[in-house]
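In response to reviewer comment 3 from the previous cycle, which asked for concrete evidence that the modeling workflow produces usable outputs, we include below a single protein chain processed end to end. The sequence was submitted unchanged, and the resulting structure tokens are shown without manual editing.
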Amino acid sequence: MIKDLKTSLKHLWKNKLFSIINILGLSLGLVSCTIILLHVKLELSYDQFHLKKDRIARVITNNFPFTPYILASTLYDYCPEIEKITRITKLGEGKFFIMQNEKFIEEQDLVYADSCFFSVFSFPILHGDPDKMLRSTARIMISEKCAYKYFGKENPVGNLISLRIGNANYDFTVEGVFKDFPEQSHFHASFLLSMEFWTDHRIESTLTNWGNWSVLTYILMEKPDMNKKINEKMPGLIVKYVPEDLAREINLQFRLQLLSKIHLYSKDMGMDIEPQGSIMRVIVFASIAVLVLIIALVNFVLLSMALSFQRIREFGIRKVLGAQRNKLVSLITAEFLIVFALSFLITLILLDFIKPLVENYMSLSLSHGFMVNLGTICSFLFLVVLLGYLACVYIAIYVSRFRPVDAIKNTIPVSDLRLPSRGVLVIFQFSIMICLMSCLICMKKQLNLLHNKDLGFRKEQLVIIDIPRDSYDKYVRLKDELRKLNSVTNVSGAAYIPPSNQWWVFDLEDPISGESFQFEEINTDYDFMETMEIEILQGRSFSHDFGKDSMAILINETGLMKLGMKEPLDAYLIGPDYYPSRSRMMIIGVFRDYHARSLYEEIYPMAIFLSPTMTREMAVRLAPESLDKIMRLIQEKWVSVFPDDPMQFSFVDEGMRLKYIKEDQTYAMISMFTFLSLVIALMGLFGLSVFVIERRIKEIGIRKVHGSKNIDIIYLLSKQFSVWIGIAFVIAFPVAWYAMYRWLMHFSYKTELSWWIFALSGFITICIAFMTIFWQSFRAALRNPVESLRYE
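The workflow returned the following structure tokens.
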């Protein structure tokens, strides 16, 4: 074997160009596959660390992960198959403050949980008594990271920590420290409070109303695979416990979602506790990894077969001397092992070089990734070596079919020296390339739609400021103060403003038809429509000129279509009995549809109510001036009105952009690997064109002697490659169309699959490939015929 390695090394050194192309092509393929492999493994490993993972599920309500608070107690009574139940919920948008040394330190991930939380989930506890945790409203649990941040290396159990939640201060005693939640958890917590603390600050209807979905309910089944049996019982639970009219009105349904399915199969659900992944993204990335690896191995096969024909005489002499086919396999395998070893070294260097790019733009951490995933990477490398070995066997079988006497005399006809599988492999390579290019262009088109679509309001120059609860008087004062600023063009407020994860619903009945409709409830202040710049299509918005407008509502276009009214203005809708102040609401205007959340979700019927006291977020429309200067002025006004509360604000356009960060990362990843795939394929095409042209040097000389022009020679040498790439386009078109059709199904608002997307991708690929071939063809055409005819 050592002798074979030396022989192969000499051969590779003799053919430096082909060797470099082979090594670099395989290196790029290994880099791409390793990165994607680590990402796919990360996505598939979510929530797998829980010891009871096969028995844990969460309850889904009408395709929403949040459930009524009251559901847990009824499940205990109704389903004996359930061993334990725990509920969790987060603090609003997750923001609150730690008060330390008279400073506000913003934190996130405050989670309320039932006392059996740690009996269901396997989050390790570092300090504290597990039997006493999450039972007292005056105690708190903190993560290991936060414990070190606020208490240093000492054990913080028994110490006090002060939190500002809403507009109130609370002192808690630290009762325990838990290990930081793994990255591969579908939800995270830095601080844990008892669910009883949450219920103490909620009105009674929140805890008893089946239409109020405010907590996530997780169950621990007695045995695995009991979810089907529990699901079958859910309709009976609704019949027994839920008021019939409410269940019918909202079409109430409950079902279980297994813990292992939450992260990758919750993409189409609204308002999850945290943004989740997508099985479609995992499939796309895994497919790309496979395709890039195939392209790299196809390159190796093409170039190795081309190089093997230069060794026909050597193989013939070896066969005369008694060498068996397995000896030829050993020679070619030794060559592959050298290529693979060098490629692997280059791969390690490239991985270290592109690590910052992957972490910054693709949200994929590679820190300590190679040692942690050593087993996975070794399995992957073994697969590559195995495939490479099979490719070597195929090459050896193919080149060993020639008679030794023909090989030694080098009298093998040119037709026999052509690679019959060459066209198939090139077509296969470029089918993948055109398919990836088409998907990339389509994704870019969809991202442009997501980022630039008219949302029904103007998102630029719009700041959202959080207003502490029960601070209406201060809110009014702040609003008046901000209106005095020349840099502020308008101010208003609402219970929630885009981009929001909140979702309030309200039932309104048409008194004429008696039919009830469910509307999204938006509670706003005066001037909301003007501040957001939402167009009024019919009627008017709320105004002081018409009294308090407390019994008036605005509906959107979708709501009008749902109602089916031709003359909506001054028509009345009847509210639910439990809300007497909204028993009879008059429609005073119809506004243009606007997106309260992301473009993943459809626009639902909306009803805007005038409820200034319910303002939780203030919308401030800014003049096009220096943002830093404006925000300093706003901050000064805030401090004068809310001296005890830090100002929390965000820009709407930035918030909307963050809604699609996963898609941006996906596009960045696919862009990089499409580029790498294109480079690999073109390197192989370059090497193959060199081989083909070198084999036809005499033919070119004879044609030139007989009067062929340079353009004729270029056409002759490029024609076959162009035909192959054309066939590749025909194959790639339906595959790319179907892949993008399935991907776009995840968006409620999607771009069109225009024909030019696929035509452009094919054109770009063909142009780049033709330029690669053209250079070699041009050089061959310019060669002196005398030199060509003397060529050996």
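The longest strand covers residues 168-178. We consider this sufficient to address the reviewer's concern, and the full set will be provided in the supplementary archive.
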